[in-house]
Amino acid sequence: MKTQIRTEVAQLWQIAWPVLIGQLATVGMSVADVAMTGHLSAQDLAAVALGASLWSIILVTVMGVMISVNAVVAHEVGASAFNKIPHIMRQAMWMGLGVGLVACLVLNLSTGVFDYLQLEPFVQAKATEFVRVISIGMPAFAMYRALYSYTTSLNHTKPVMVIALLGLAFNIVVNWLFIYGKWGFPQLGSTGCAIATGVGMWLMLGAMIWWTHRAQAYKQTFPFTHKEAPKWSEIRSMLRIGLPIGVTYFVEVSAFCAVGLLVARFGVVAISANQIALNFSSLAFMIPMSLGIALTTRVSQTLGERDVVRARFISWTGVGVSLVFAVFSATLMTLFRHQVAAAYTSDPAVQAVAANLLLLAAIFQLSDAAQVTLSCALRGYKITRIPMLIHIMAFYGFALPIGGILGLAPSWFPWHPAQPMEAAGFWIGLVLGLTVAAILLAIFLHRLSGTKIAYDVHPAS
Q1: What is the pTM for the complete model shown?
Q2: What distance in Å separates the CA atoms of residue 160 and residue 157, rounded to the nearest whole number?
Q3: Which H, E and C letters describe the chain, residue by residue?
Q4: Which UniProt keywords apply (predicted)?
Q5: Structural domain boundaries of the chain?
């Protein structure tokens, strides 16, 4: 058994580590945007922060929808049905184009929310322009994620890493040129960030197409040999898997955004401390998320082979590895929370609050790592609707209501603390909500993976 576990952990990590570096490079783009505009003006920084909040919500939703391609393609890889993959991928690219265009439209329409935030006219105009310019990258991003899932399903994740790193380098260089107006380029400030990211998405798509065309690993399944019209029945089957994942991602991101907005009433110290804790825990989250992507691939491939016993073993091994990492990261976060807070800010008041929130974030690591890998294992079974409902209940039924009661201490509610717990109350709510999600997902995976009937009868529940 120990040998089997070591072998499976090695296989998971072989897929996951390039994905991890790619994810960190993607996060690095937003870090570069904030850091570089912050050195230009507070107004441009505010515009990027506001615009990026809308962009990130739509971005992760699109990412969730396109994950369905991973489960479908990896299943055919496991079944050795390589002849089916080119057709699936041509339809997946049509789906990506459609999803990207819808996301582009929604993103532009969502700028109307700025009218209700009582912003400075200059900041509102710059934030709106940021969103409209960056939206041009949405169709490319959705199609890129289709190819991302394709190459991951074939166990080739190094292209993801290399292209993401090149994308980060491109983003930094073009930011420098357009934000500050270097080498004769116009000084565009926050709009320069949007240009860099939007154009960068199209270049990343082009790079991925070029890579799949040139590399020998894709010769057997290369999808771009001829044109093919979209077929709604096949696109719909992928959307049936992907849309619940997109909703799940939207629910989680919107819940964190809601906490950020609710914490804002407690002042700059609370806002800053909340952002520090969220940013640092998000970086730590990249490892279980990357393991989860690898887990979806491994479970899908194994179910394609019709080996349900091994799929169960792989699922729980992946969850166990993620929890081991979570314990390690939670321990480090607990021991060095004051140093982490000090690395973000020199303000003593913000440091103190952030250190307390990082203690809660340490607990948060366990439930968050568990729920993401459990969800990803279920995606390998093509089960997405029930996890979606679990996440909706966990965040909207537990995390936000409990966080609101503890954080705001509303007088109308019979059981509330004597004083508002402010940001800490909301983080306790998030911990409890994620714990509920992890427990329910674990129960569901245990029951599902223990039966051979579930996968065959409910392939997209």
Answers
A1: 0.87
A2: 5
A3: CHHHHHHHHHHHHHHHHHHHHHHHHHHHHHHHHHHHHHCCCHHHHHHHHHHHHHHHHHHHHHHHHHCHHHHHHHHHHHCCCHHHHHHHHHHHHHHHHHHHHHHHHHHHHHHHHHHHCCCCHHHHHHHHHHHHHHHHHHHHHHHHHHHHHHHHHCCCCHHHHHHHHHHHHHHHHHHHHHHHCHHHCCCCCHHHHHHHHHHHHHHHHHHHHHHHHHCHHHCCCCCCCCCCCCCHHHHHHHHHHHHHHHHHHHHHHHHHHHHHHHHHHHCHHHHHHHHHHHHHHHHHHHHHHHHHHHHHHHHHHHHHCCCHHHHHHHHHHHHHHHHHHHHHHHHHHHHCHHHHHHHHCCCHHHHHHHHHHHHHHHHHHHHHHHHHHHHHHHHHCCCCHHHHHHHHHHHHHHHHHHHHHHHHCCCCCCCCCCCCCCHHHHHHHHHHHHHHHHHHHHHHHHHHHCCCHHHHHCCCC
A4: Antiport, Cell membrane, Ion transport, Membrane, Transmembrane, Transmembrane helix, Transport
A5: 1-230, 244-461
Residue 172, token pair as written in the block: 């930094």
